[in-house]
């Protein structure tokens, strides 16, 4: 094995270049690299930190680099840009790496990947160290969106959208929170244990964890961990699921013995939670448009000891998927922009455009209408997304209600009074990373008359 094969910076550079060229999800590419077994010890932690850190802070990094590099960044070789971002990220955001090491390792990486660029890399990074206190950012008074975007590494169009939804301090807090590393949140599998028992098991194993504030099944784990090594994983005592995502199944509130449909169910977090709330009794159908994703749902159900769940390939874009009035409750967690989870999938924010939001909203409206036909009279439909945009959330619900007089919006404030801080005045679920320390989620509960 060549020495460079076990270099976390080179591995990070390869992943960043692949994301820039081919797309793909950072977490999957990181897992694939780690599975090779080349990186050991602290390098296994530094590698994902570099990838996610550069993706989360890319906007700020590029704003700084534009003041240090004479040429526009898009005229440089992709490898040079990737190495500059990696080096600058270490200097600007990682206190534990000495400045000399960050510069020297970046120059060494350049010599391996783009030998002629070593001098440029060295000069730019050392110039940053000399000039970092004099770098400029847009004037917040003249252009608030540009200022928040540059300082907190978000697309300017997205910050402008947040400024239209929140006051300026709130928009800044959201922009800042959306560039941070998210918490590790687990959902207790109450079919096999209790939350208190799981916490006790973690404490005995030296793992620090606390109860979530709103989900009765959620715990937040401190520090970084490989999930399969946590106590209770093999026994199916928990699964990874953010607290906001857990709230969605709780809002649908399925009962044992009911017939329930989870549309767009992969990878299965909400589906297995629904089964848990049903006490593993009744009929639960988890569907997805992708046949390739169904085994993931089956495996999750098997590990958690769930047998009331069946899976099927279904395209919810097509009407009359099932006979009308088939299910007591239906969950549509619609495919969306993922703006509420960009701290987990930071690569997405650099691909999305406002046109994508409008395209997704149109599809969501059609899927919501199709899902509604499958609900029994008196039954419940919950529409949810992991997006922060009004176009994908409130506006979809308003459009749906205007076309379906046989449905009414239920007020979550009255149904779930203990969680009022998560609900809007109209009674819809709105979780925000900066307010609730959970992913950005939306849900509306609709009852068929």
Describe the structure.
By secondary structure, the protein is α/β, with parallel strands linked by helices. 44% of the residues lie in helices and 14% in strands. The chain is built from 18 helices and twelve strands. The chain has helices at 8-22, 26-35, 43-56, 58-65, 78-93, 99-113, 118-131, 144-152, 156-165, 168-177, 195-204, 243-252, 269-277, 294-303, 354-372, 394-403, 412-415, 433-436; strands at residues 184-188, 209-211, 218-221, 238-240, 259-263, 283-288, 309-313, 327-333, 375-385, 407-409, 429-431, 441-448. The strands form two sheets. Strands 5, 6, 7, 8, 9, 10, 11 and 12 form an eight-stranded mixed β-sheet that branches. Strands 2-3-1-4 form a four-stranded antiparallel β-sheet, with helices on one face. α1 runs parallel beside α3 and α12 (243-252) packs across α13 (269-277). The longest helix is centred in the last third of the chain and has 19 residues, at 354-372. The protein starts with 7 loop residues before the first helix and ends with a strand. The model has no long low-confidence stretch (mean pLDDT 95).
Short description:
The chain has helices spanning 8-22, 26-35, 43-56, 58-65, 78-93, 99-113, 118-131, 144-152, 156-165, 168-177, 195-204, 243-252, 269-277, 294-303, 354-372, 394-403, 412-415, 433-436; strands at residues 184-188, 209-211, 218-221, 238-240, 259-263, 283-288, 309-313, 327-333, 375-385, 407-409, 429-431, 441-448. The chain is an alpha/beta fold and 449 residues long.
